[in-house]
């Protein structure tokens, strides 16, 4: 989830530029590489170091991002100039969300009490695709406290089929019936 408004704005701007030029895939790869480079602990420390000149930081970034689309490289340079390199992973995430949305791909976080097998995850993805009308990519998570069933979050939509929520609802209905 994107927390920085600035990261979302950079991601949206990058997406517009990439889409207008028909280079979405190249930008996606470049932004992913940029996010990985700026997330590296040593690189992050160097980018925060006041004793290193901006020119030296820019040279380091240019060596670290070979073959990246020139406009994506300009974004990396802009982040260095503004001291916002820590936003790179969130920018890449925002860009990817927009690209996936345009392609009709949704991401679902599926929580189960026990790990899902690959075939079970595929079946869940197919069912969620039917419900959402989009191709769904499932990210799996285990939380034993849900007891059984599953909880799926696709964007802002929550599908709670957990045993815990069913028991809670049953408990509430029993209380209401006694009242």
The CATH superfamily of the largest domain is known as N-terminal domain of the delta subunit of the F1F0-ATP synthase
Report strand %.
15-25%
* Named CATH topology of the largest domain: Peroxidase, domain 1
CATH top level of the largest domain? Mainly Alpha
CATH architecture tag of the largest domain: Orthogonal Bundle
Rg over CA atoms, rounded to whole Å, is 22 Å
Distance between the termini: 42 Å
Structural class: alpha+beta
- When the domains are counted, the total is 2
Query: Tally of extended strands?
Result: 4
Strand count, sense and barrel status of the largest sheet are: 4 strands, mixed
Order of helices and strands: HHHHHHEHEEEH
The helix tally amounts to: 8
Helix content: 55-70%
- Summed over residues and divided by their number, the pLDDT gives a mean of 93
User: What is the topology, as strand order, of the major beta sheet?
Assistant: 2-1-3-4
């Amino acid at each position: 989830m994107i927390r920085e408004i600035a990261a979302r704005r950079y991601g949206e701007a990058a997406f517009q530029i990439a889409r207008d030029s028909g280079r979405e895939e190249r930008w996606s790869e470049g932004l992913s590489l940029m996010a990985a480079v700026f997330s590296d602990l040593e690189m992050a420390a160097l980018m925060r170091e006041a004793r290193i000149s901006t020119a030296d930081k820019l040279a380091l970034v240019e060596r670290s991002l070979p073959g990246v689309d020139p406009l994506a490289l300009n974004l990396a340079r802009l982040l260095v100039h503004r001291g916002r390199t820590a936003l790179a992973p969130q920018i890449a995430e925002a860009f990817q969300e927009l690209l996936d949305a345009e392609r009709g791909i949704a991401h679902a976080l599926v929580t189960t009490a026990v790990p899902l097998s690959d075939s079970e995850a595929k079946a869940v993805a197919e069912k969620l695709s039917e419900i959402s009308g989009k191709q769904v990519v499932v990210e799996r998570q285990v939380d034993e406290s849900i007891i059984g069933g599953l909880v799926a979050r696709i964007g802002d939509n929550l599908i709670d089929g957990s045993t815990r929520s069913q028991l809670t609802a049953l408990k509430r209905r029993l209380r209401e019936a006694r009242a």
